[in-house]
Amino acid sequence: MKHSFLIITLGFALACCTPMTMDLMEEVEYSVIDWENAGYSSLKKFDPMMENFEMIFSVVLDKKLIFRVASISYFTVDPNGDEVEASGLVYHPINKKSKGVIDFLPMAHLNRDGGTSEDLFVAEGMLALLGYTVIVPDLLGSGVSKHMMVPFLMTQNTGKVACDMHRAAAQYLWDEFRYALPAETTILGYSLGGSAALATQKHFEKYYANSVKVKEVHAGGGAYDLEAAFLAYAKSEISEYPAIPHTILAFDHYYQLGLDYSKIFSGDLLKDNNYETWLHGEYDAAILKELLGVNLRNYMHEDFFKPFNQQNDELKKLHPLLSENSVTEGWRPKAPIYLSHSKSDAVVPVASAEAALSKFRKAGANISLITYPGDHYTVGYTYFIRSLLRSL
Known about the structure:
- With 392 residues, the chain is of the alpha/beta class.
- The protein has helices spanning 2-13, 43-46, 54-60, 155-177, 192-207, 226-236, 243-255, 267-270, 275-278, 285-292, 313-316, 319-324, 350-362, 379-391, and strands at 30-39, 66-77, 83-93, 101-105, 133-137, 184-190, 213-220, 337-342, 367-372.
- The protein has a 9-stranded mixed beta sheet with strand order 1-2-3-5-4-6-7-8-9, with helices on both faces.
- A hairpin with a 5-residue loop joins strand 2 and strand 3.
- Helix 1 (2-13) runs parallel beside helix 14 (379-391) and helix 4 crosses helix 5.
- The model is unreliable at 1-24 and 387-392 (pLDDT under 50).
């Protein structure tokens, strides 16, 4: 998944951001955890698989560029409004003028140590090699906050945490380089990062419209409409990624629902309360796939597969939260949105993207959706090749 996702990023970068002057919204407290200067020779640090594509990258990447990657921490809030420390990465060219700013939202990493700013080089940061300033928040449950339960698919908190990271990055860049972060940003994200990208756009446009202008959003493979996604999962009975149980646990934890899991889960996930250990950051997606399989009937209660109005009372507690945490609700996007999705996606059903397309168009938003053959993990590669050819 990681190398397929990396490939999608370059195609988006070639038409990204126009610099503008941005006034800092207010001073933000942050700390630098670690930093390193790097350049083209650091390509493989982003992903060892990059050596397979080095001939392609050598055409578009700036071999003379030097950038700094810094891991910073800052303060934000959890879904309950309590102050917490979070972290993320800031990539910035230091020997050439930045081409603009990109907020790149991360993919989901179910294990606590996966894909965090502790590594300095993550997939989402690769656009730094094209000369952009790239901001990658860890989001909660990763990096310095990895002791926390991930607020999985909790839209409002995701947007808040990402925007606070943007503000902290602006302060850091001013203090370190006297670089005023452009007021215009492009937002990218794939998979969980896809829904997080729209959540970030929503937060910027609702709360920081006078300070930050979102130019455009390129999102792929995201669960934008949770109700549509859950209905599609129930219909197909297949999920190649254990997103549903993680989402339910997050909702239960932060909304204090007090769920009776005997009416939510089944099989080995319910046996001996395995959900208490299996779903709390010890295992990555590959291990969970071995434990749970891809057939949802292996671990979801039989009522999950019934129409919403026929589900048990415990499952019905989740229904209003699916709507509340769908990025499609209560908002008309201003910046254009470009969605991409696999036609046969068994990780995030394409129905979620189709629902977002329909709802946003009815609201008058500028949005498009391109669907591709292949699975969730190969769509990034397909889209990159087509975008790269057009740009060249």
